[in-house]
Specification:
Blueprint (H helix, E strand, L loop, with lengths): L12 E5 L5 E5 L2 E4 L12 E5 L2 E2 L5 E2 L2 E7 L6 H8 L5 H4 L18 E5 L4 E13 L2 E14 L3 E8 L4 H15 L3
Length: 182
Amino acid sequence: MAFLPLPASAERSRPASLPGGGEVSLPSAYAPVSEGDYRWQDTGGLIAYRNYRSMMSGTRECDGMVAVARAGAHESLDAFVTAARAGLTTRWAFADESEGRWYGKEDVRFPVERRMGEDGEELSGQLSVHVVGLFGVSDKPARFFALDHRAGLRIAVWIFDRQGGEKAARRIADGIAASFSE
């Protein structure tokens, strides 16, 4: 018998409290990190990981991350994204850089697209996540998506393309914003 993933509409959610008050619902694949947990970072918001794990090499890894904060917690969307990056695991933290250092060149960050969406300002960019697997090392395509939502939230999603990329990230952000209650 084969197990098929649930469609996004059938995905369960879990409630999570925001620093500064309020509550949002996160997709069930993402586990929120609360204050007191060894993984907690003071980012001014909520961090949630998809499949968080410690590796034998001593690093910590995950299959994606969501960050959520009240709009007033940071002075801008850029400041929120910078603060949220503190929660990224090792391979995601460098996924927006070319690996020029290995080839005698400078590291270059991938471009970030800034645009106005129907719900507010958006940031989006490609990522290349370095993954060590059973049969070798590879770079997996991924996306970064951040939204300054008119509901009073700032939401950022780091997600693999195989998990739906920017389209799935937007759906996650919209679902979180719709679930926001003060």
